[in-house]
Amino acid sequence: MADKISEDVLDKLIVDLFEIEGVKFGDFKLKSGIHSPAYFDLRVIVSYPKLMKQVSELLYIAAADLNFDSVCGVPYTALPLATVISVEHDKPMLIRRREAKDYGTKKMIEGKYRPGDMCLVVEDVVTSGSSVFETVQLLREYELRVRDAVVLLDREQGGTERLKKDGIKLHSVLTMSRLVDVLQREGKIDNGMRTKVLKFVEHNKFDTSGSQGDGLAQRKQLASSMTFKQRGEAAQNLVARRLFNIMENKQSNLAVSVDLTKSADIIKMVDQVGPHVCVVKTHVDIIEDFTADFVSKLQKLAEKHNFLIFEDRKYADIGNTVCHQYGGGIYKVADWAHITNAHTVPGPGVVQEMSSSGNLATGEYTKETLKIARDHSDFVIGFICQSRICEDPEFICMTPGVKLEGGGDSLGQQYTTPRDAVFSRRTDLVIVGRGITGVTNPEAVANEYRLAAFASYQERISQ
Ligand SMILES: O=c1ccn([C@@H]2O[C@H](COP(=O)(O)O)[C@@H](O)[C@H]2O)c(=O)[nH]1
Fold first, then answer.
1. Which top CATH class is 2-208?
2. Where is the Orotidine 5'-phosphate decarboxylase domain positioned along the sequence (predicted)?
3. ipTM confidence
4. Predicted confidence (pLDDT) per residue in 365-419, tens digit
5. Count of other CB atoms within 10 angstroms of residue 131
6. Does residue 429 line the site of ligand 1, with CB under 6 A?
């Protein structure tokens, strides 16, 4: 890069980024819980149009010798940079969606292209390279070719090497070491901070020895110590991705189980507690007056409050029968439920452990169901379990039988507390039924459960 752009221009850019607080130094606790002496937030660039134009131009120069038909920014910070490159140099742009639309074409890549077109990926900061790789992977799924990516700042933590393994050459405008060298020379940071940052980079390199690009496995991070955001970014399954997204945005890892028997009561309850939950769980076969109108009201509430619908049907028959049960009958679960579940006793399917006392779902059963889930990860998003059963980031562990005060009921249900489930047993999401639906002020109580469960998750990832 240094050969294409003058040293002075790069040095001035580094100081400008520092001045607009796109680069900060101190003690920053990252979402992963790690303390970092440097923090980058290049989203601020959009507030400085001249700088945004300059950065886009430098990214374009970094790609000057390359042949490409279109550009695609990694969402979100790099989107405006890719837009400026596209407009200034008359290069068609492609937009990568984070989530497929629920209607229409369900495309993940927007824009016109021909199969085999070469696309240049644009990114603001690269650490492990997993965000760039995710975008590349999607473009390749859509029959585009990708050989190169340009980035404003390479943190030099293994991203270049990792992307190389996937056939992508990373071209960076700036590197972390150059950045701290210049800032020290310009008197913006002292030598102690410079050394601290360089040591941090040295000791926090991502392992690039794996052959394939699931960055998270290579980071050797355990699911239980990762943020929901990181896990959403790593998940390939779109429902899992969407759920992690909702959990992160609503700061909720609470599912409410609305086991009421009259549809009007269910709708009223869901509207009250909807703002606090990421999932509403139903048992439609206990509803006395089930109609299609109930489903459409529930779907409207799911949109209004942004939650997913989980029909707790616990399928357990042969594939052919389950297909009829799931897609047909009077409930037509497949038409409206985002999530449903199955026992694994009949063979491959989804997994379940029970919270009731004396349940038989232990040992080998759990091991086998985990294997089935891994073999069908395009279809499986997680497990019903009382303790985390695996550290695969994409699988969500959901725990029913939760009450703030613990205890049990007269029919064998055993309750655990939100903290015990999420912090001690390291599961992700708590399912609460009567603890919320059986009280006089469900909305306030749902919020209490939300706060307790989310605080336990935050405590866990900051360990
Ligand atoms: O092992 C399991 C599997 C599912 N459930 C379901 O969760 C709720 C719990 O309701 P509470 O009122 O909080 O007891 C209910 O719908 C069960 O069918 C479970 O409890 N245990």
1. alpha beta
2. 253-449
3. 0.89
4. 777 888 888 888 878 999 999 888 888 899 999 999 999 998 888 887 789 999 9
5. 21
6. no
